[in-house]
Recover the amino acids of this structure.
């Protein structure tokens, strides 16, 4: 897992040899990961493994202590979150960050406008995406008044409205029922083809992540322990240990 000898791919979102320390404690150690256009990579690992920290690095919210960040071949280390977003990297948040006082439609529209669309085009795009995520009935509702799972859907819609090349989804299905989760899986599965974007999916439900991901990247204690095809990874002893360990502890 040392520095890749290859230059960063011209069409990928990638980090190389990233370490993040908080007061001396390493949340991420020497991590290298690349997300290609139109691929779904599952980022998995027990609580505290460093998954959200990695997403923070990939989106400019956290500057790594060491290592590099490239967006489509451009050195993006030290870029602000807004600049990273402008370069086509969108994310959702574990705890949601919607404009609670704005309507559902306004939340989506603001994101489309921020990505450079005019007001009218932004509205058209927002309406289309809200329809696809199943929120068209809720246009005029205040975002804060939505049920929790609809807020998560709106968070995804908001991210999609910025016309991203890469979508980073931090536990989007958390708190959803099985059927809500099925709906969400269908949306996530459609992202590469429908919107042309690569997806990094953080998800605890192994069934969900195994069935959606082209590749898995497994973190434990801030380190990459395995990467590979889902069927390869699931047979790996270190993977089973990380997960069974967590279930026993839970
Ligand atoms: N801002 C921060 N300051 C100090 N420690 C942090 C901070 N953010 C995360 N950590 C620590 O880094 C580790 C990884 O956290 P996190 O990335 O949230 O893991 P995950 O998303 O996999 O559950 C944890 O030990 C967490 O307590
Ligand atoms: Mg997390």
């Amino acid at each position: 897992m040392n520095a890749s000898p290859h230059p960063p791919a011209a069409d990928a979102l990638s980090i190389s040899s990233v370490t993040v320390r908080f007061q001396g404690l390493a949340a991420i150690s020497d991590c290298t990961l690349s997300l290609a256009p139109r691929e779904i990579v599952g980022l998995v690992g027990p609580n505290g493994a460093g998954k959200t920290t990695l997403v923070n690095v990939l989106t400019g919210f956290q500057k790594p202590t060491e290592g590099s960040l490239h967006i489509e071949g451009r050195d993006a280390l030290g870029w602000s979150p807004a600049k990273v977003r402008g370069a086509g990297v969108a994310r959702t948040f574990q705890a949601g960050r919607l404009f609670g006082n704005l309507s559902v439609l306004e939340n989506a529209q603001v994101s489309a406008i921020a990505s450079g669309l005019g007001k009218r085009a932004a509205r058209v795009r927002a309406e289309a995406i809200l329809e696809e995520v199943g929120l068209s009935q809720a246009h005029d509702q205040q975002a804060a008044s939505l049920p929790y799972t609809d807020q998560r859907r709106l968070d995804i819609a908001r991210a999609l409205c910025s016309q991203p090349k890469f979508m980073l989804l931090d536990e989007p299905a958390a708190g959803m029922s099985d059927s809500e989760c099925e709906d969400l899986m269908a949306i996530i599965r459609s992202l590469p083809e429908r919107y042309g974007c690569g997806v990094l999916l953080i998800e605890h439900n192994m069934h969900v992540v195994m069935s959606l991901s082209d590749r898995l990247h497994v973190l434990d204690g801030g380190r990459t322990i395995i990467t590979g095809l889902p069927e390869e990874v699931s047979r790996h002893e270190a993977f089973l240990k990380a997960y069974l360990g967590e279930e026993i502890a839970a």
User: Anything to note?
Assistant: Residues 98-162 form one domain.
